[in-house]
Amino acid sequence: MRQRVKTTFALVVAIALALGVARVDAFETLTSRLAAMGSKSDFMSTFTDLALSVERRVDGAIEKVWSEILERFHPFVIAGPLTFAYHELVYFGAWMPWLAMDRFEYFQKWKIQREKRPSAEMVMKCVVKLLKSHVFVQLPMQMMFYFVAPYFGFSLALEALPKSRDFLWQIPVFFVIEDFYFYWIHRFLHHKRVYKYVHKVHHEHKYPFGIAAEYAHPVETFFLGIGTLLGPLFFAKHMVTLWVWLFFRLLETVEDHSGYDVPWNPTNLIPFWGGAVHHDFHHKTFEGPYSSVFTWCDWMFGTDKEFRAHQAKLRGGKESWAYPAVFRGAPNDQALAETRATTKKLD
Ligand SMILES: [Zn+2]
Ligand SMILES: [Zn+2]
């Protein structure tokens, strides 16, 4: 039974990827279907009009901003230093909400390893190391991307701007590719013969905080960075798509290392999203799970047994049928102890 479910999952992922390869614009199909249905129903017609008007506005705004960027900067500057500045802004910006939570006791009930807090020295060391790695590894990679990208048909031209509807299928497909690539490279980096040379650096943080995400050995930054570029290189043709993708990818990796599992996090609504609770366990134990984004690779390849056992313990020994999605918003040990104490009092 379990094997059959796993096979079904593998098939679903393969089909999703195949759709990407065939460049099937799922959104276009959906909107045309909705438009056809819209002729039969006022509600659908209003919905379609609204979706198309939002799309027009977003596309118009992207075109305006991009034409200004093209007027002001040389393509090499856009692909190199400007993309670098954009990355810094999004990466450190994504950390701000989590950093703010550290300052308020109210949010501590959602901290996954509640008793552990990084010292100021730890955070400073991380910032300095990150800046060095960003300048000496990531920036050259971005410069290199400028020369490699044309071979993949990549463009910066205004006429080649993508439609915002493309992002609706591209971003999920990029996340699936990134996740699968990351899983295997990360698992390899944990091999006992390799671990101490490269990945040990990233695991200096047993209770991670947002920006610990990119705190890693340069070799790791380089190889895992390739995974981030794979999706856009194969399924996109424009720098704007890369920027949009980078935005979501950075939010995701900073969230993974945030150390918080807040119940009102919008990512809780995404099926199979691993989130902080998934990756924090890996930093705490050095065992699986190894995935960056979703929970299905660890589930299919059997590297999440300890994680699942731990989560099942937190839930009174029960594992829900809906795994892997069910563990989002799981209670931490401290919160659970408090809940038990309150329940006892009420009894
Ligand atoms: Zn690891
Ligand atoms: Zn990590």
How would you summarize this macromolecular structure in one to three sentences?
The protein is an all-alpha fold and 347 residues long.
Series of secondary-structure elements, N-terminal to C-terminal: HHHHHHHHHHHH
Task: State which percent range the strand residues make up.
Answer: under 5%
Number of strands: 0
Question: What's the pLDDT, averaged over the residues?
Answer: 83
The biggest beta sheet is recorded as: none
Low-confidence stretches: none
Please report the distance between the alpha carbons of the first and last residues: 41 Å
Query: How many helices?
Result: 12
Number of domains: 1
Structural class, by secondary structure, is: mainly alpha
Bound molecules: zinc ion
Broad shape: globular
- State the helicity in percent bands: 55-70%
Please give the radius of gyration in angstroms: 22 Å
Protein name: Fatty acid hydroxylase
Subcellular location: Membrane
Keywords: Membrane, Signal, Transmembrane, Transmembrane helix
Organism: Ostreococcus tauri
Structure description:
Belongs to the sterol desaturase family. Residues 1-26 form the signal peptide. This protein is mainly α. It has one domain (74-346). 64% of the residues lie in helices and 0% in strands. The protein contains 12 helices and no strands. The chain has helices spanning 2-21, 26-38, 42-72, 75-102, 120-148, 164-189, 218-235, 239-256, 275-285, 296-300, 305-314, 333-346. α4 packs antiparallel against α5. The protein starts with a helix and ends with a helix. The mean pLDDT is 83. One zinc ion is lined by residues 186, 190, 199, 203, 282. One zinc ion binds at residues 186, 190, 199, 203, 282.
